[in-house]
Request: fold
Amino acid sequence: GAGVSQTPSNKVTEKGKYVELRCDPISGHTALYWYRQSLGQGPEFLIYFQGTGAADDSGLPNDRFFAVRPEGSVSTLKIQRTERGDSAVYLCASSFPAGGTDTQYFGPGTRLTVL
Amino acid sequence: AQSVAQPEDQVNVAEGNPLTVKCTYSVSGNPYLFWYVQYPNRGLQFLLKYITGDNLVKGSYGFEAEFNKSQTSFHLKKPSALVSDSALYFCAVRDGRNGANNLFFGTGTRLTVIP
Reply:
């Protein structure tokens, strides 16, 4: 049973560039979450998908951040015009939703460094 | 509003001694509480959760946690620490009132088990 996978594991980019981060959830999990973890902090919620739709995107910091999940499985987090403050580890999690009682299973993360 | 506090950034314990990692929370409705562990360069691994019922929850690797509603706490415990337990531990909460989906995390506690 494969867990949540994320690619790339590391991404270094220059300020102003566009990046895409990919998440492949556990098979059968309809809920998918993106979190961002800055150095010395706990993960912070970005966006939640139920199936193909973004059910809650209240954690996205601004309109440079966007995420899609077109077929209800793999998701891509997209960041436009990257800034140095975007440097962080981006974590993806998936679950089979159960009214808030479900356990979220996390991937290893993508470490994004914006120079 | 939901929040989690982990008052100790660092906990040191001798191998074989009992360990406690503290967590307090604040939610408007019923709390769903989770503990995760993070090893270097790896994602979060689920340890245990409290949803309802028995206040003492048992989880992976011999860990347990006690839910205390009056003190709004959910401390993580283990009777006998192992060197391999050294890692970063995160407490997280969901508000069960409105079926909120995302987790709110504390800032983490680094546990070091001394041989």
